[in-house]
Amino acid sequence: MTESGLQPWWIVARSEEVTSREPLSVDIGAQPLVLWRDAEGIARALEDRCPHRRAPLSLGCIRDDGWIQCGYHGWSYDGATGRLKQIPNMKGEQRFPPVYKAQAFAIAESGGFVRVCLDPAAAAPAPEVSTMALSGTAHVAIEQAAWIAALYDDPALLIDIRGVRFTPYLMSELREEGGLLVMERSCQWAGLHWPAPFSADFPITVLTRSDPATGRTELPLRDDQFTTLLTAVIAPVPAARGVTAVRWRAEVGRGSGLHGRLLGLGTPFAVREAIDAAALRRSKPSASTHYDDLRARLATSSTPGATAELSRTPVAA
Amino acid sequence: MLDILSRPQDQIDLQHGAAPKPATSLNAVNNWVPHDIVMRDSWFPIAHSYGIGKTPVRRAIYSQPYFVWREGGKAVAAEFHPAEARMREKSIYTDAAGRYPVMEHYGVVWGWFGNPQAADPAHLPSLPFLPPQGGLPKYMTATQRFDCSAPISLENLIDLTHADFLHADVVGDERSDSETIETFYDSETITMVRTLVNKSVAPIMKFFSGIRQPTQNVRQVIRIYLRSHCAIAYGRFEPGDDVPLFHPCTPETRDRTRMEMVMNTSNAGLLFRHIMPMAGYKVSRQDSSMTSPQSPRYMRPTARKDLHSRFDAPGQRYRLLMQDLAARQAGGDFAYRDNVSEDCSDIIGLRKELFRF
Predict the structure, then answer these.
(1) Which residues of chain B have pLDDT under 50?
(2) What share of chain A in percent tops pLDDT 70?
(3) In sequence order, what E strands does chain B have?
(4) ipTM for this prediction
(5) Chain B CB within 8 Å of residue A265 CB
(6) If you average pLDDT over every residue of chain B, what do you get?
(7) Domain boundaries, chain B
(8) Where does the Rieske domain lie (chain A) (predicted)?
(9) Which residues in chain B are contacts of A286 at CB distance < 8 A?
């Protein structure tokens, strides 16, 4: 929940994952959701729980008319309102009181991402500027807060950019900038070179700009002439059982030279599905300490867009 | 003025002798948070002179970007890269053109961090063992990095008993007939003098300087310029060589440190002259193995206080002086009460005959 009492918008799916062929089960914390596209191709989000006998709606199917049908007794719901539309065995008696409904959530789609807000009346979020062609989803067995902390302390544990080696050295520590948490890490190209602890200069840096409420992070890789070689958007969302669901999109920039051209081949960006737990345990809470401090400061400040209760994840009703 | 301290830290605040009672309490000294200290109005080493050419290179002081290059042969530093799309406002640390005060001395490019109007060459630390115009061979220099805060790195340096264990394979172990520690300080500097009699000989001198005796008398001096986080580490070994080291700890961020090292081994034998500066690569990684995990533990106040021995007196005083200076700066007082550019040859016991420029 944000400082103003608003629930944040979470990136719960990539556009490609939400179809009219089969429902998609996702979570925001302990709140299970079902996503699908209705007959008009509009993405819909309901609680993943049939109000009849609590069966997951995601085990059902999507009808030709765009309603979602529970796979247990066939109850069907409209995605826009969550209202019950049909009970097959009721034959001609298909008029139901308003309380016969599943909880519907606010949903928005832009930039190749589907976002959900647990407040059904939430105002639409600002749209993503563009859709990046490359994308992926990874489910990682680590709490979201710990995933974000690792992203700041040792990103190599979580992500891979082809040919890029992250160093422990920072161009700037984590700071607040325009409502985002911003940090820049020095990197080297993989291969033989002078070791990072003894290097006077580094050829590339990774900038991270994170939303303090959701951890959505924009990650441009730039060379020392400020040419953007690659941009990724990463969205770590708390899911059930302490899992973090990470959706990402990326696009290759205008890099020239051997390394820049190699980035243009295939998919140069990946979020790791598995974490080296021994390395994670050894990693030091360094930059992530700033992350915690800044979030705490934002929570008590009046900065527009600042967040309170940032680590709180929703609990299913 | 320079005060002398050669007693255990326990007694610092209990005595009312020549040393002025510090504003900072003993409790704060043993429970300090160096991570929170940001020093202003100071010259910081940002590059070796030879590292700067016509193409801008990027540096940082407390996360503040410095782009450094040469215009007409003169080093300049700007807040914005010429190719950078400006996404942020100009800071208070640069002039109207977005330029920082810069000076070049001792073969090092120095950037001023603070009020640009206050930049003055008189605030440049004295390093009397380095040629003012630079020009030492490149092999006597290096860039080293530490993923710890600059004060943690300097506190590591000022307690040289760590070297007997962490760097024993380079500089020898803890065995000696006697060991004394003295501390001298003013509001801008602290100097520690460690004198050892019959210390086990430094292996690097045994192997590369031809020292055959099993022991040597050693006088080691650490002098720290508090604001700029620059240190002098000067060792005099009998028998052996004089090894003065410029050991700056530039805070690129509050928890990452950059060292543009210069070790003047001009007076040593040919082999030792070349090998000793390279030992820094090993020694810095040994230091980093401890200071790197140590540093995050000083990012926040903790309930537990640090313990100390009599050998920590200089380190305790360093903490106290840093906190006093930081408190003064927090109150808006950035004036220099002591002159850091005054020749410190006598204070560090420099054998001037070896370092004439």
Answers:
(1) 1-21
(2) 93
(3) 3-5, 42-48, 57-61, 64-71, 74-78, 99-100, 102-105, 108-113, 141-146, 178-185, 189-200, 215-225, 230-238, 242-248, 250-253, 256-263
(4) 0.83
(5) no
(6) 90
(7) 3-36+143-354, 42-136
(8) 9-116
(9) 147, 255, 295-296, 299
